[in-house]
Amino acid sequence: MSKNFPLPHEALEDLTKRFPTPFYIYDEKAIREYVRYFHKAFSIFPEFREYFAVKACPNPYILKILAEEGCGADCSSLPELMLSKMVGMKGEFVMFTSNETPASEYEYAAAEGDIINLDDITHIEYLKKTLGKLPETICFRYNPGQAKHGCNSIIGSPEEAKYGCTREQLVDAYRICRENGVKKFGLHTMVASNELNPDFFIDTAKLVFDLAVELKEKAGVSISFVDLGGGIGIPYKPGQKAVDLDYVARGIKKLYDEKVVPAGLDPMRICFECGRPITGPFGYLVTRAIHEKHIYREYVGVDASMADLMRPGMYGAYHEVTVSGKEDAPRDHVYDVVGSLCENCDKFAVQRELPKIDVGDLIIVHDAGAHGRAMGFNYNGKLRAGELLLRADGSVKQIRRRETIDDLFATLDLDGVKDFE
Ligand SMILES: *Cc1c(COP(=O)(O)O)cnc(C)c1O
């Protein structure tokens, strides 16, 4: 059975008359439903917050929907902080989790009252020098090193990852912050990406809760929120199963009752900063077959490229591909579905069983709503696709136009070059 797309074939063909392919389209209703499910699962905690990882889908319309649903934003750069502010996410609803951060970005975040999540113990002094004093609230990123097993390849094993502080450093880091007048403390970790094993997240919570208890004893600070990071995976491949958030929440709650409550740390806010599961399955790249060729393999050439969606080319990532109007046709052909970049990794599908594809068919690349358009680039002079929003009422709104050649040339000095010798 192939994955669903929220518009029937005729409606999609009609839409392409208004908005030529390629484009991204996001399903508002499905995004809202997923966030509600997330919030409901974690409503068993005294306090919970999901900070949407803006980098996954940095469009203010999407952020506005998420703000309405009660989410905060997890940002890693000044433009991401600015986008979040534009839609009314501010103060404790913004986590600034960056690394190798310039002073000017700390200044902006501090002025807005965003939560600053420091990546290293040496950044305490840097922040203090930048701001004149430390902010009232501070969070640190914990890198558990060998204490955390079973991590997958996108982030890599913690002891090889550049992020975060060691356990020993954190005891000193929180003590120093307390002595410098910091009043409120958070503890953060992010050790997974696209993880489908629900027990992985419960195990992460255990590490973080144990550390919060240790920090109370050794550094004299009460952690008032923990951020368990993002990393909840989505079932890109057939046969994979979505993470059961009720199961994860219940598993974490058990540990909360065993560890956090007896330590006198209740109420401690539980936070996540997921991007992928929030918008990933509810965003699609729609492209059209414009060529076919028959050499050693059968190729279908489409009008999108790796510059629109680089995950397959970059990680060999699998994305389900369907052909609009041929959902029920037998998958009796084997194709490489390819884009136009001068890179042989520009393939949306490799040796994939699909129905017979004809030039002109609309091809839907699924699960493209997170780290999709956001990771696009302009190599080979490619103009990135625009973004559409399928509203809950069935109407469609363009929320980002397609790039133009003028956009691409905007940073060039085209007048200067005429007189240049
Ligand atoms: C990328 C990232 C996230 C979001 O990851 P997803 O896999 O999209 O959930 C969250 N936090 C940090 C610090 C990140 O770098």
How is the secondary structure organized here?
Elements: H1 9-18, E1 23-27, H2 28-41, E2 48-53, H3 60-68, E3 72-75, H4 78-86, E4 94-97, H5 103-112, E5 115-118, H6 122-131, E6 137-142, H7 167-179, E7 184-189, H8 198-219, E8 223-227, H9 245-260, E9 269-272, H10 276-279, E10 283-294, E11 298-302, H11 311-315, E12 321-323, E13 333-338, E14 347-354, E15 362-365, E16 386-390, E17 396-400, H12 405-409
Parallel strand pairs: 1-16, 2-3, 2-9, 3-4, 4-5, 5-6, 6-7, 7-8, 8-9, 11-13
Antiparallel strand pairs: 1-10, 10-11, 10-15, 12-15, 13-14, 16-17
Helix pairs in contact: 2-9, 5-6, 7-8, 8-9
Pyridoxal-5'-phosphate is lined by residues 53, 55-56, 74, 97, 190, 193-194, 229-232, 273-276, 370.
Number of helices: 12
CATH domain class of the largest domain: Alpha Beta
Structural class: alpha/beta
Give the helices and strands as they follow along the chain.
Answer: HEHEHEHEHEHEHEHEHEHEEHEEEEEEH
How would you name the CATH homologous superfamily of the largest domain?
Answer: Alanine racemase
Main pleated-sheet profile = 9 strands, mixed
CATH architecture verdict of the largest domain: Alpha-Beta Barrel
* Bound small-molecule species: pyridoxal-5'-phosphate
CATH topology of the largest domain: TIM Barrel
